[in-house]
Amino acid sequence: MTERLILDCDPGHDDALAMILAAGDPRVELLAVTTCAGNQTIEKVTRNALAVCAIAGIDVPVAAGAAGPMVRPQMVAPDIHGESGLDGPVLPEPTRELDPRHAIDLIIDLVMSNDPGTITLVPTGPLTNIALAMGKEPRIVERVKRVVLMGGAYTRGNRTPAAEFNIIADPEAAQAVFGASWPVTMVGLDLTHQATADADVVARIAEIDSPLSRFVVDVLRFFGSTYLARQGFPAPPVHDLCCVAKLCDAEVFTTREAFVAVELTGTWTTGMTVTDFGDLLGRPHNTDVAIQLDKPRLWDMTVDAIATLSARSAVRS
Ligand code: PIR
Ligand code: CA
User: Fold this and answer.
1) What residues make up the domain containing 145?
2) Can you tell me the distance from the alpha carbon of 140 to that of 19, in angstroms, rounded to the nearest whole number?
3) Which of 14, 79, 187, 308 has the fewest Cβ atoms surrounding its Cβ within 10 A?
4) Pairs from 89-93 (Cβ < 8 Å, separation ≥ 24)
5) Collapsed DSSP state (helix, strand, coil) of residue 33
6) ∠ CA 222-235-200, rounded to 5°
7) Other Cβ atoms closer than 10 A to 219
8) What distance in angstroms lies between residue 95's CA and the mean position of ligand 2's atoms?
9) Pocket lining for ligand 1, CB < 6 angstroms
């Protein structure tokens, strides 16, 4: 059965790769792309989403969502993603219109009009849209099959020593998502830091030699340069890609059940995803936590998706 998903994102270099895999892998069906302020402002990330659609030939609805977090002041990540949110490649002009609906309404419409248990939500930015959609239409919680989110970690942070960016950018929204009764998979930094785009991967993508492959190479080069300069990584971790990969092939990473809660009142730890794999807190486990990546599997499917979309665009033009 093909996995049907809504990608709620803040593109973002790794978000762009997640869009491409979701559109190019035959094992999943991308129903819509919704945007949320995160890596950059809502205007910028929405523009970037449309640019990725243009270069990759993605023609699903795209809707703009929340312009900032539910409670706290806004946080963006120009140090890693640049001023545009997707610095590096030349961004093509959008070829299509935005969906007129707010992201929250598009999510609600799709979930309520499809059979229960058939749609997976894949948030790869702050969880603002998902939490607001739940607040507006609480019945989506029992209709969504699963939430596979990029965020958090059980061992580290990247925005503070304790907190990962997507969670600390809107911790109240994140806690609402973890605290709801739907199944949640947390694809955190413990997993995504294994998903580096090493030189051999960039070379394989370059070999496809299409406008899309050149775009992806530029995306990865810029992302690699900021990750090297800011965080000392020899190659950039393509976080958001891992969530979509899990829907393409469940074997791409292992998980372990845990109780996860978001710290909302810490002095130094706000936004931390406190993870109890055992029973220290005496709480029922509410999350499948991503642990171990099969890296060759991840990059094989990603290279294949780029090749598939490149061939599709070549036929069309
Ligand atoms: C990546 C991100 C934000 C900040 C840094 N330092 C690195 C973005 C990515 O798009 C990903 O979704 C998540 N947030 C990783 O923290
Ligand atoms: Ca992201």
Assistant:
1) 3-316
2) 23
3) 79
4) 89/214, 89/215, 89/218, 89/219, 89/222, 90/218, 91/47, 91/48, 91/51, 92/51, 92/54, 92/55, 93/51, 93/54
5) strand
6) 100
7) 27
8) 23
9) 12, 14-15, 39, 77, 80, 124-125, 150, 158, 164-166, 239-240
Coil, strand, or helix at residue 194? Answer: coil
Q: Active site residue: 13, 102, 239, 285, which one?
A: 239
Q: Is 293 helix (H, G, I), strand (E, B) or coil?
A: strand
Instruction: Tell me the pLDDT of the chain (317 aa) as tens digits.
Output: 799 999 999 999 999 999 999 999 999 999 999 999 999 999 999 999 999 999 999 999 999 999 999 999 999 999 999 999 999 999 999 998 999 999 999 999 999 999 999 999 999 999 999 999 999 999 999 999 999 999 999 999 999 999 999 999 999 999 999 999 999 999 999 999 999 999 999 999 999 999 999 999 999 999 999 999 999 999 999 999 999 999 999 999 999 999 999 999 999 999 999 999 999 999 999 999 999 999 999 999 999 999 999 999 888 76
Q: In whole angstroms, give the CA distance from residue 48 to residue 72.
A: 24
Q: Which of 10, 37, 33 is nearest to 23 (CA)?
A: 33
What CATH number did the domain enclosing 305 receive? Answer: 3.90.245.10
Nearest atom in ligand 1 to the alpha carbon of residue 239 is: 11
Nearest residue (by CA) to ligand 1, atom 5, is 80
